[in-house]
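Q: Joint fold for the lines below.
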Amino acid sequence: MNADKPDSLEAVIRDAGEGWIVDWFEPPSAAVKYLQDLLGRANERICERFGSGEEPITDAHIVREYRRSPHKIHAFIQALGATRSPDMLVMVWRILHGVQISSVNLNYRFENEFHLKVILGSREDSFEEYESNDIDDASLLRHFGIMKMSDRPIFDGFYANYS
Amino acid sequence: MIGGRDILIEIPAGAAAIDFALRAIRFYWPLAVFEDANADAPAVEYASLDFSKLFEVMAYKSQNAWQSWEKLGADPSLDGTMIHLIASGNNLTVVVDNQPSPEVLTIVETIRTGLKKAAHRIRLKEAA
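A: Joint structure:
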């Protein structure tokens, strides 16, 4: 991370070493608008689901959070480069803020079906469901932390991977 | 308790490594609170942590445990209620009681095996 604090979404993306997310757009200047649109839709989902009960996903918030928890925003930036789904971004955001991964269901049939369903939360009355039919979103699972609690399986946390 | 037993985990010990460890602790201690050892501030819940300068952190079993530690210090009655983590270079040191409880040993093992297996995949430490 550079000593100069990045002050925009693009600067955060580049500072995190994920500049490819911007540069693979043609032209690269279109990237920021696309990413801001995607974040805007994710933010709408946050408002629909949680009202003011969850921190918003905005440029300003991402810049501020990058100063507090750069490893978390780095992971989020990698998710931003991996998915087109606002719901998947909300899922990642919630995990980064400490919400537990309750269940993961993945159905796949060659050339026929991909369906990912992740449920977050620790209490049945507050479970949150996130679904995707886009196989690109399978790559998000690689970011889950994996541990065993006395041989019991746990997915927890969302982390930046090595590129 | 402290100076207790040091358990060294050789991994790139950055914010993500500490994050992983604290989240593991929460599974055993759902009411855990965390205190930055280098800040003059009370223990907070996971979601309120500032990881930007978090190199040394105490994880308490609950808010009550933290208050008791504040009041009594390293009193034997508080054994098994706090785990101390120190990230330095390529080591995460976990400091536990001299004679840790089975629960604390299980927590440490969850952290150790989880981090060792994650180290090849997850960026446990951000680039300087």
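Q: Anything notable?
A: The longest helix of chain B spans residues 102-118. The radius of gyration of chain B is 14 Å.
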